[in-house]
């Protein structure tokens, strides 16, 4: 009898635990913001930064009384920067009551979920997916600059500001972000009168860059343009150093945070590197300094532009909710939220921005240079 009772008790406990595990937290009294981005894998720093920057914004807004008296909550899912996992993350968030999406963080993942958000009609704001296709639908908006704009901007900076006439370029041919910026840079640099002395590429899973660096070293290029993400760029500069290649480095916003991938003396390898960015943590602007202090105290490191993008994305959601007159989580009007995006303007960490009918931000870019291991505005 005692054995039977014990078995019944164990079965009951298991049933209760399973039942509780199947029940998500109740966010019915909050506006639910979903986030999708890589928090593991080679692009993890980007997703972590967006998530952490967004959380600071949510904490600020909730401390000030929320939006129309309603608090916000952030649910963030890891996609490892992969399209299929981004789709699964999206479905998970929708099952948990997501009403607005901040994401995806990277271009390929964001493109993968565009059709899903369009079908559901929810407002999608990508903090940092810069491929043109990442904001192709009427319900999608982006905080960052597009890849072509970055390519054109850096071509002009290299040619007109730095006086370079001969470029070497290395890009990831498997990545929409990289190819978009690469193509725009080459077209603009040549239009200005520059020449491409060497043009090399690599696959997404590449780990050996000796062949590419050998070709660059044999060219007469005055600088190397890297329209790629920081993790691969760090590997490339280490390889260049090992082969005795010393060449000025330029890139887009994907190079922000490259110092996170270079430890010890390797950090000196990117001294003088120049890249395009909408945010520099050393900027003396009071809002930027306040955010930088909060972020550093909370996470133990200075924020990069991806953290600022996440922060601004949350404040855009706040403005859209207010503009649309939404006062209850039970009455979120997707169409009204989407329409509100072209009616608002934000003085954000990444600049003063408004949005055109294509979901593109209208704001100015900044150029940063690594000086003594610090990102400095130029």
Keywords:
Rossmann fold, 11 helices, five-stranded parallel β-sheet, disordered N terminus, single chain, 378 residues
| CATH-defined topology of the largest domain | Rossmann fold
Q: What is the typical, i.e. mean, pLDDT?
A: 93
Measured as a percent range, the helix fraction is 40-55%
* Backbone shape: elongated
What is the number of independent domains? 2
- Please indicate the percent range of residues in DSSP E strands (runs of 2 or more): 15-25%
- Biggest sheet details: 7 strands, mixed
Tally of separate helices = 11
State the end-to-end distance: 80 Å
CATH superfamily name of the largest domain?
Response regulator
Q: What order do the strands of the largest sheet run in, or round the barrel if closed?
A: 7-6-8-9-10-14-15
Task: Return the CATH architecture of the largest domain.
Answer: 3-Layer(aba) Sandwich
Assign the structural class, choosing from mainly alpha, mainly beta, alpha/beta, alpha+beta, or little secondary structure: alpha/beta
Over all CA atoms, what is the radius of gyration? 23 Å
- SSE string, helix = H, strand = E? HEHEHEHEEHEHEHEHEEHHHEEEEE
Name of the CATH first level of the largest domain: Alpha Beta
Low-confidence stretches: 1-23
Total strand count, please? Answer: 15
